[in-house]
Specification:
The structure holds 2 protein chains of 2 kinds.
Chain A: H1 3-15, H2 18-28, H3 33-38, H4 45-59, H5 63-76, E1 83-91, H6 100-114, E2 118-124, E3 129-136, E4 149-154, E5 159-163, H7 170-181, E6 183-193, H8 196-203, H9 219-226, H10 236-250, E7 260-267, H11 275-279, E8 284-291, H12 295-305, H13 314-323, E9 326-330
Parallel strand pairs in A: 7-9
Antiparallel strand pairs in A: 1-5, 1-6, 2-3, 3-4, 4-5, 7-8
Chain B: H1 3-11, H2 50-61, H3 67-73, H4 75-80, H5 98-107, H6 114-121, H7 132-147, H8 150-196, H9 207-230, E1 234-239, E2 244-253, E3 256-266, E4 272-276, H10 284-290, H11 297-324, E5 329-333, E6 339-345, E7 352-358, E8 369-374, H12 377-381, H13 383-394, H14 397-406
Antiparallel strand pairs in B: 1-2, 2-3, 3-4, 5-6, 6-7, 7-8
Helix pairs in contact in B: 1-7, 8-9, 11-14, 13-14
The chains are: A alpha+beta, B alpha+beta.
């Protein structure tokens, strides 16, 4: 086992939390029963790392095997890195007939054409998601396994989620993706977040949306169970209608956990009391960032509790509606405009 | 003392009130006994069977000496009776006001024994616990109404006015019924016309008939929409004060309702979809363009409903397959459920058969192509498996697999 493999294994062991160690190793399945038994999981992690290194040496494992372990861990806990969403545009005729093996072959061959030293690993998860791990090298050096890029894609959907991609490598990945999925272009979907499940649910519309309907669900019953029926609230009707509007704008139940929303303003300064600023010709640039542990939940609560008036501003309700959390607002269009942006590294 | 003041006195709260006073307020100075039985036809409400009811009402109606309520409750009696009282009370009646006492004594001068009364009517049931105050207030009212004849006149006027109002209401209701009947006739003719596809006969083109025609058409459309909703089609409601609609598309498979998808469509200024909760692998925008949503909304909705129902059907088939046939391994599937690769185990030959089902027509629940792959070439060419091929092409996959298991082709 060479040096890079050893370092990789050490890094992976540092990342995996102690309680997840045993299940992850079991899933990896590369240790024999005897070896598994010899690992005492009550020891300190450092000791376990040393033990595992020894076992891997024994089994003559290569980097390839160790990257499997890393991939298993990342698939289980995808929330450690920042994920960025990309959208594929202009499907071609046969986009729906792309099946897994075809996609795998095409992607690997296209990416290998573009960059010589690259290590690709593709795995299909049970929820129909295709996970790709890419370690980039260049013409002179071997692939760097310490900084891999992970790509998640659901076939037949136009969305791709990537982590940690430098701007130099982005066009290469984009090209490979476009060619293997039978689309014609790819663009940035202006949606990023730490939780993969959240941004995926937002784009695939997997959260509970509320629509006006002739046959409303028994909402009133839920509310009654919550509060004391002996208390008759004065503004119960108003509160219920606010609640309904908030749910129509943002959704019902558990909302996808976005962490931030960024609005980049490029509008002219408008304030009657401040003449000097208003007189300037050029746009007043400013960036407004909303951050929270669960942004959509807090926005919905603002609307339903009456802090923000309903119907809320379309700028905030565009976040779930359009499935993005980066907006550039200019004077020409009153609503949020779609602009491309480079993901920051 | 005037009557008003006396009224106040009677109502004074600190005066003792006794219970079990039974009062029958028919005062017959002449015949103290006879009125209870049979009664007089001229004053129908004084018949014996009515007595307890009246009685009850009178007593219950006035615990406070408000004249209004007392007049109302003995309204029948007060206006019409010609001042005949018959008072019977318990020996324990306590007289509280001097004036009232005098009156009562005057009234009750003659023979008015409780026993007599009870013998005749068995009226013990109607005694209430209203007390003597109520009794006195009732008496007061009775006496007053006896005196003031003009009150009858105003009462009559009131009733006449009420009659007029009720007549007007009756006319309105009759007009409504007539309109409704016309509407029903028009509706039935419209329905028949739709069934026969004939032209409409224009009778008189008066404003009324046009309006009625429109209303009939409106109700027809509403009923059609409701029927459509009941059979599991889509349902449409207006939103944003008529500027938009929200369409709910229900999906079902084999008689089981599955997910419902919603679309909000703006109608003004242009017809476009504002939001929806349809997953991204169903090409909503593509279908909208294909079917020209601006012009032919119904075709678009029908196509979309077909796609969604087919998707829900395929998804349900996959779910049932996984539940019912655990021995069959699902090698590949995708979110759109447009491709399915299964691994069968053949019992005797101990080989595996890889079966690929392609659902390239996304508006159907059945596959467009079935392909078997097996190491043993002979197996896939055998008659049995050719039959299985057509079985899989024509029946839903979970049912086909059950049939194949029954025939012993797969484990």
């Amino acid at each position: 086992m060479d040096d890079s493999a050893r370092r990789l294994l050490q890094r992976i062991m540092r990342r995996i939390p102690a309680q997840m160690l045993k299940p992850t190793l079991d899933k990896w399945g590369r240790l024999t029963a005897a070896q598994r038994q010899s690992m005492d999981f009550t020891e300190s992690k450092w000791a376990l790392t040393e033990k595992l290194l020894a076992i891997c040496e024994e089994n003559e494992m290569t980097v390839k095997h160790i990257t499997e372990l890393e991939m298993i861990h990342v698939i289980e806990n995808p929330d450690h890195c920042m994920w960025y969403a990309l959208q594929l545009m202009d499907p071609e005729e046969d986009v729906h007939s792309v099946e897994l093996t075809q996609f795998k072959e095409q992607f690997k061959s296209h990416l290998r054409e573009l960059i010589r030293h690259v290590s690709i690993k593709i795995k299909k998860h049970t929820d129909e998601a295709v996970w790709i791990r890419i370690a980039w090298g260049d013409s002179f050096s071997r692939p760097n396994h310490l900084k891999p890029t992970y790509v998640v894609h659901h076939l037949q959907t136009p969305y791709v989620f990537v982590t940690s991609l430098t701007s130099k490598l982005k066009p290469l990945l984009s090209q490979a993706l476009v060619l293997s999925t039978r689309y014609q272009a790819i663009k940035d979907a202006s949606l990023s977040g730490r939780k993969l499940t959240a941004i995926r649910d937002l784009l695939m519309r997997q959260y509970q949306q509320v629509f006006p309907t002739k046959y409303p669900s028994p909402l009133a019953e839920n509310d009654q169970n919550a509060s004391n029926i002996l208390i008759n609230k004065e503004q119960a009707e108003l509160a219920a209608s606010r609640h309904q509007k908030a749910r129509e704008a943002f959704g019902d139940g558990m909302l996808p956990q976005l962490q931030s929303a960024v609005y980049k303003l490029e509008t002219k300064f408008r304030d009657h009391t401040n003449k000097t600023m208003t007189e300037r010709e050029e746009a007043f640039r400013c960036v407004v960032k909303f951050a929270s542990t669960n942004l959509l939940e807090s926005l919905r609560h603002c609307a339903s509790s009456g802090i923000a008036s309903t119907p809320g501003t379309s700028l905030l309700s565009s976040i779930p509606l359009k499935g993005r959390n980066y907006f550039v607002i200019t004077d020409n269009s009153p609503g949020p405009s779609s602009q491309t942006r480079q993901p920051s590294n | 003392m005037s009557w008003n003041e006396e009224a106040q006195n009677v109502g004074a709260p600190d005066e003792p009130v006794l219970s079990t006073v039974s009062v029958d307020l028919r005062w017959d100075a002449d015949d103290r006994h006879g009125r209870l039985e049979g009664g007089d036809e001229r004053q129908g409400n004084w018949k014996a069977p009515h007595a307890p009811v009246c009685h009850q009402e009178l007593l219950c109606g006035s615990l406070t000496p408000s004249r209004q309520s007392v007049v109302e409750s003995d309204g029948h009696g007060g206006g019409q009776q010609d001042g005949k009282y018959h008072i019977v009370y318990n020996r324990e009646v306590l007289l509280v006001g001097r004036v009232h006492r005098d009156r009562l004594l005057a009234a009750a001068g003659e023979d008015c024994s409780l026993d007599n009364y009870l013998d005749k009517t068995n009226n013990a049931k109607t005694t209430t616990s209203a007390g003597v105050l109520s009794l006195l207030s009732l008496l007061e009212v009775q006496a007053r109404s006896r005196r003031t004849q003009p009150q009858q006149q105003s009462r009559v006027k009131e009733l006449k006015a009420k009659i007029e109002a009720l007549k007007v209401q009756k006319q309105q209701l009759e007009a409504e019924i007539e309109t409704h009947q016309n509407l029903q006739k028009l509706r039935s003719s419209l329905d028949k016309q739709c069934a026969d596809e004939e032209d409409v006969e224009m009778e008189e083109v008066s404003e009324n008939s046009q309006l009625l025609r429109l209303m009939a058409r409106h109700t027809q459309l509403k009923d059609l929409l409701h029927a459509h909703h009941l059979i599991g089609g889509y349902d449409v409601i207006k939103t944003r004060q008529g500027k938009g609609v929200c369409v709910s598309l229900a999906t079902a498979y084999e008689g089981v309702y599955l997910d419902t998808y919603n679309l909000e469509i703006d109608l003004k200024p242009t017809v476009k979809i504002s939001r929806h909760n349809i997953p991204p692998f169903i090409p909503v925008n593509g279908l909208a363009e294909e079917n020209d949503m601006q012009v032919n909304m119904r075709a678009f909705l029908d196509a979309l409903s077909q796609h969604l129902n087919a998707f829900a059907g395929r998804k349900q088939q996959l779910k049932l397959l996984k539940e019912q046939h655990k021995s069959v391994e699902v090698m590949e599937s995708n979110v759109l459920c447009s491709i399915l690769v299964l691994m069968f185990k053949v019992p005797r030959a101990k080989t595996a058969v890889l079966c690929t089902l392609d659902y390239t027509d996304h508006s159907r629940c059945l596959p467009t192509r079935v392909h078997f792959e097996c190491e043993d070439k002979q197996l896939s060419d055998s008659d049995q498996w050719k039959k299985n091929h057509s079985l899989l092409m024509e029946t839903p996959v979970h049912k086909a697999l059950t049939a194949m298991k029954n025939m012993g082709d797969i484990v």
